[in-house]
């Protein structure tokens, strides 16, 4: 089992991701530190989080909350059962469509490599019509689920 810890920068339309064997609070905090490193320290950033168990750790594990307060980061949570509000969800649909559907990787390493290669391709081709079509369709489907 492997986990993708990912972030989507709305200002640059770039996707970032790390494939990890675990997806706990320690890995989450390390990824938050990575996201923070992408912007100057004086720029306040907001990290939008769903309700996956390592994310609400500010209530049960103060490390993330203390780190956020000390590093000019706001943690913003989507409502419970509201992950469709998180703009990264459509990006995951595109990742599955372009990199994972119909594949049978021999190893976790091969699958992680495919995911990293997709993210690099996606960030270089943000205006690709095929990519835009898949993302638009995923956004429309997610909005329709709540209408």
Q: Which terms would index this structure?
A:
single chain, 147 residues, alpha+beta, two-stranded antiparallel ribbon, two-stranded parallel sheet, globular
Task: Give a quick precis of the structure.
By secondary structure, this protein is of the alpha+beta class. It has helices at 25-37, 57-60, 62-70, 88-100, 108-124, 129-144; strands at 3-9, 14-20, 45-49, 73-77.
How does this structure look, described?
By secondary structure, the protein is an alpha+beta fold. The chain contains 6 helices and 4 strands, in the order ββαβααβααα. A two-stranded antiparallel ribbon has the order 1-2. A two-stranded parallel sheet has the order 3-4. A hairpin with a 4-residue loop joins strand 1 and strand 2. Helix 4 crosses helix 6. The protein is globular, with a radius of gyration of 16 Å.
Class based on secondary structure composition and strand pairing? alpha+beta
Number of strands: 4
- Order of strands across the biggest sheet? 1-2
Order of helices and strands: EEHEHHEHHH
Give the integer mean of the pLDDT values: 84
Largest sheet: 2 strands, antiparallel
Give the uncertain stretches in residue-range form.
Answer: none
